[in-house]
Amino acid sequence: MLTRRKAILGILALGAVVEVIVAVVVFGGGDGKILPRSALPLHPVAQSFTPDETRLAECSEQSCFEQAFGNIAYYEGPKTAITLFDKTLEEGDPSCHRIAHTIGAASLVRYEGNVARTFAEGSSSCFSGYYHGVLERALIGVKSRDPDKLGGVARDLCDDPQVLVSRWMAYQCFHGLGHGLMITTGYGLPLSLDACERISTYLDRTSCKSGVFMENISSSYGVRSRWIDDEDPVYPCNSIERDDKITCYGMVTSRILRVIGLDWEKTAEICAGVEKRFVSTCFRSMGRDISGQTHRDPDEIVALCNVAGQYGAEGACISAAAMDMTSNYTSGKQAAMLCEAAPMETRGPCYFGIGGVMGRFTATQAEREGDCHEITSDPRYVSSCVQGTEIKGPLSVALAR
């Protein structure tokens, strides 16, 4: 039954995304800012979850599965829904992210809008779709063009001890807010970035902006943002303010691959030609995408990251893939297998990347060092991992230096 269900979901997902093309021309301003020719109307596409009697056993199409899993979360709780979700959907199933969104949305309704409690019972399964679903719905009622108001509401949603218990949970919350800001403003990229600027710390502002750029590239609802350009797959990264470029370039290959197809050699060529300061960041974006595309298979990741070797970026690619694996599994054990399969000269950066993510999971340095010792017994790589855990600021910025 479960195998059949996975197959059905995989087939349905191929036709699940419908692009809505918005015909508005935009220009990159001479001062590096994005300048819209016309105002962007508020167009929130997310709706609050409404439970009904739909059951999983009766489903054969995407929207039914989303509703059924949402019902389980609403009536039985998110932990029950997530456990069944993880058993039912294969890792990398393209339909899983939308379903995880709905589980998060339904859980928020179950807990009467309490973001902190809903977050505390969540999971990072399928690219953290649960957290995105919570935050995008939490902003539904905010219909404002005032970045101060948007930023204030966003900041308050994540300002709770249950959310701030670890840097990892805080990242998930502020990153999810970035998605939510884009959705609730009708994919208003400048306004969403401006609202993120109202968040208190640089680390949390960057986390928020990463969600903004991810939603801009890959809409949760199939909406085509006006802040992309098929003639320039690097846009808007090459046309925004300098302080935001590194966050944008950190996921730019997700856009490049949508434009040119799964051509890793061409993607590497494009990364090698972006603004010099952000070349390595582009290759890390490529590593993350390779990890997702290969369903986090170590041997396939190593083979594809080899393409970056001619540009001296193989280490950046593998390190970012290891970070993606660590994020997805909330553990460094699977990513350590990638490091051991990788060329010797890339293993240090690989373990450093694992440490950079694992360092967000726990509260004390002793715990972080213990985690590093659990994934490798080689003192060289334990040291690399521990060094990664010591990064306090945004990983994208720290790794670019």
Task: Give the SSE layout.
Elements: H1 2-13, E1 26-28, E2 34-36, H2 62-76, H3 78-88, H4 96-110, H5 115-120, H6 125-138, H7 147-158, H8 167-184, H9 189-196, H10 202-217, H11 242-249, H12 252-260, H13 264-272, H14 279-293, H15 298-305, H16 314-329, H17 333-341, H18 344-358, H19 365-375, H20 379-389, H21 395-400
Antiparallel strand pairs: 1-2
Helix pairs in contact: 2-3, 2-4, 3-4, 4-6, 6-8, 7-8, 7-9, 8-10, 9-10, 12-13, 13-14, 14-15, 14-16, 15-17, 16-17, 16-18, 17-18, 18-20, 19-20
The profile of the biggest β sheet is: 2 strands, antiparallel
DSSP summary: helix tally: 21
The Rg value, from CA coordinates, equals: 20 Å
Average pLDDT taken over every residue: 84
Which structural class matches the secondary elements? mainly alpha
Distance between the termini: 50 Å
The helix/strand series, from N terminus to C terminus, equals HEEHHHHHHHHHHHHHHHHHHHH
Side by side, the strands of the main sheet go: 1-2
Q: Please give the share of residues in helix.
A: 55-70%
Shape: globular
- In the predicted model, the low-confidence regions spanning at least 5 consecutive residues are 1-44
